[in-house]
Amino acid sequence: VSVILQEKKELEELFQFEKKNYSIKEGKTKKIRVFAKWPEFINGRVKLKVFSENEKYFKILNKSVILDYDNKAIKDFRKRIASATVLIKGIKYGKSTKIFIELQDQKISTTVRVIPQKEIGANFRIEIANVDLGSQRSVLVGNLLKINGRHKIIQRYLGPEDKWNKNQNSIHFRLLIAELVADTVARMILEESSQKHREEYESLAVSSLYQKHREYMNRFLEIAHKNQIPDRDLTVG
């Protein structure tokens, strides 16, 4: 196996995964590389067992891999190394999960996160609309999130239409937008996931569905808050 590292030219450890974190899209496969210093750590062909704490979100396709001397990598690392390749496949979007390998009393790990096949949020736009959307504070139309400018809660922070341009930059309104965006993204993920895994969702209890929504929403809340309210705008100690 020929190994080329684009950024890292030196191994930090005697035995390690190439990266500490990986992301993989649903339905896609990815190669995860493992390196060891030669001959400081190993000096012969070794069979490795690869395992995970949970294969609910992705599957390890080769749980037995060979770690062996890589004679083509010396020009990239400027020293001799051994390498192996683990192949995984994304099953469904979910929380981050660890992959482990043990060798010579050393246990190494890396974290894998499965992401939706479609990039949620790509070309995502927000628009304040002076339209009657009933009790809904916002609705998603394609990648456009329409904010109901007539809703009482929205008006509390946004004011009348002639004040929208000014008040939409207030920290209070940006905080509200962060909440709406996180909630919308969570619902998008749930809807897409339920279409792909109908049997699982048909038997899902209401409490479990709500828990999933909260899990997804909380994951995006921090991102949305930092996007709408950068640290420089905060006055807390």
For the secondary structure, the number of strands is: 12
Structural class based on helices, strands and sheet pairing: alpha+beta
The parts where pLDDT drops under 50 for at least 5 residues are: 1-8
Q: Main β-sheet: number of strands, strand sense, barrel status? A: 9 strands, mixed
State the shape.
Answer: elongated
Evaluate the radius of gyration: 24 Å
Distance between the termini: 53 Å
Mean pLDDT: 86
Helix percentage range? 25-40%
Order of helices and strands: EEEEEEHEEEEEEHHHHH
Count of helical regions: 6
What percent strand? 25-35%
Topology:
Elements: E1 15-17, E2 21-25, E3 29-37, E4 46-52, E5 58-60, E6 64-69, H1 74-77, E7 81-90, E8 97-103, E9 106-115, E10 125-129, E11 138-141, E12 144-148, H2 152-158, H3 164-167, H4 171-196, H5 198-202, H6 206-228
Parallel strand pairs: 2-9, 10-12
Antiparallel strand pairs: 1-3, 3-7, 4-6, 4-8, 5-7, 6-7, 8-9, 11-12
Helix pairs in contact: 4-6
Keywords:
237 residues; alpha+beta; nine-stranded mixed β-sheet; three-stranded mixed β-sheet; 6 helices; 31% strand; elongated
Description:
- This protein has 237 residues and is an alpha+beta fold.
- It is built from six helices and twelve strands.
- The chain has helices at 74-77, 152-158, 164-167, 171-196, 198-202, 206-228, and strands at residues 15-17, 21-25, 29-37, 46-52, 58-60, 64-69, 81-90, 97-103, 106-115, 125-129, 138-141, 144-148.
- Strands 1, 2, 3, 4, 5, 6, 7, 8 and 9 form a nine-stranded mixed beta sheet that branches. It has a three-stranded mixed beta sheet with strand order 10-12-11, covered by helices on one side.
- A hairpin with a 2-residue loop joins strand 11 and strand 12 (144-148).
- Helix 4 (171-196) crosses helix 6 (206-228).
- The longest helix is centred in the last third of the chain and has 26 residues, at 171-196.
- The protein is elongated, with a radius of gyration of 24 Å.
- Mean pLDDT is 86; it is low at 1-8.
